[in-house]
Amino acid sequence: MMPKLTFTISARRVAQILAVISAYLCLQSIVAKHIEAAAGTNSTYWIYHFVRLVNVNQEANIPTWYASTLLLACAALIAVTAYAVKTNRGRFVGHWFALSAIFLYLAVDEAAALHEKLTIPLQEALNPTGVFYFAWVFVGAAALAVFVLAYLPFFFHLPAGTRKLFLLAGCSMWAARWASRRSAQTNGISTRAAA
User: Fold this and answer.
1) 30 half-sphere exposure, CB direction, 13 A CA radius
2) What mean pLDDT value characterizes the chain?
3) Nearest to 96 by CA among 111, 114, 74
4) Where are the domains of the chain?
5) Considering only CA atoms, which of 20, 28, 18 is closest in space to residue 54?
6) Can you give 19-84 as a three-state secondary structure string?
7) How far is the C-alpha of 66 from the C-alpha of 70, rounded, in Å?
8) What is the pTM of this model?
């Protein structure tokens, strides 16, 4: 008989480590943009590429890799939870598996910028301005509305503490994405770079 493999992960410690990494990436991006602005027209090839590599408002760089890795880890952990719920004949098994698939899609989208493919066709069709300058937000808002309606029973079935954490995580993720896109628009970053 093989011994059971058990290990304990401190959620608080993981959250602290991820918060420090996120704060570092944001600070590094801000400092890089200031260096680029200070260099002005004297900006070099190296400065340009360094900024591109660390800018949180760009795609295909270190912050994007970090975000897609986190989303992929979430997908895997949710899949493990879904399997445990299924094994214990719990409720909302389908919701757990679907949530894992959603996070897998978000990880792939973050890494491959799938949503970017919607930007130009939607902008040409809708000619959006202001907060909705990045037209794929319309598709994202519709998908979010469907998700919220489909997941309300699941959400209210969760224990109160877990519900609060889910809500905090969801609000934090959407607020960060909105702020990032708003910052890109304010700073005149092209649609392609910020989509």
Assistant:
1) 8
2) 87
3) 74
4) 13-194
5) 28
6) HHHHHHHHHHHHHHHHHHHHHHHHCCHHHHHHHHHHCCCCCCCHHHHHHHHHHHHHHHHHHHHHHH
7) 6
8) 0.82
